[in-house]
Amino acid sequence: AMDGAPPPTSPTGLSAYVAVSQLLGLTLLATTGAWLGRYRGGVAWHSPLQFNAHPLCMVLGMVFLQGDALLVYRVFRHEAKRSTKTLHALLHGLALVIALVGIIAVFESHRSKGIPDMYSLHSWCGMATFVLYLLQWLLGCGFFLFPGASFSLRGQYKPQHIFFGITLFILSITSCLLGITEMLLFKISDSYSHFVPEGILANTLGVLLVAFGLVVGYVLTREEWKRPPLAEELALSMDFKTLTEGESPGG
Questions:
Q1: What distance in Å separates the CA atoms of residue 175 and residue 27, rounded to the nearest whole number?
Q2: In b/e form, how buried is each residue of 181-205, taking b as 16+ CB within 10 angstroms?
Q3: Which residues, other chains included, contact 84 with Cβ-Cβ below 8 Å and sequence gap of 6+?
Q4: Domain range enclosing 167
Q5: In a domain, 246, yes or no
Q6: Can you tell me the distance from the alpha carbon of 23 to that of 31, in angstroms, rounded to the nearest whole number?
Q7: pLDDT tens digit string along 34-84?
Q8: Does 124 fall in a domain?
């Protein structure tokens, strides 16, 4: 700005898609709350309503916050890389904590009601997704946030980190869709086929989950919307490579 250069701008269309994703995400949360509040009695911890914390936490943590964590590198395109990386890790960490609360809620609810655990396809997919998500977060912090990993190791792991990041987001949405279907079949199996309002609302939630995933996925896969490296980041990367591998910048 001091040399009169215009401030950097986002690529055409990126801001609109990010705004749509956030609108869909907030609508997701509102629809989940409306379903649980209107038809399932609301949410309370040490009560028969404890189970309802599970779908709310999973939609909030494993879908909305995870999606926003993935969008961090598209939204904060011109901020310091270290700050962006830290925000990315913090959002994923918060998503993990909220998801863990949701998992505890369902296990405690099952125990109090004498319901067996981990027998359904939803529970298998959901638990696998959570464990892999935790592993992905730990590896990401180890390779990219904390010092120690060499430049070559970071470079080798980065494609896997990106691939599994998107894959786990897809698996999270898939697990939520399985959970919605399972919950409807348990709660309203006799009336679900008659297009009752609860079934329509829950189906709408499923459609919103898919829409949110598609918009986030589109933003992530647009090559021209990827965060460009800043000049100082390129210099720091070269210095880091020199320090960790003993290569000269000129080499």
A1: 19
A2: bebbeeebeeebeeeeebbeebeeb
A3: 72, 73, 76, 227
A4: 14-226
A5: no
A6: 12
A7: 999 999 999 999 999 999 999 999 999 999 999 999 999 999 998 998 999
A8: yes
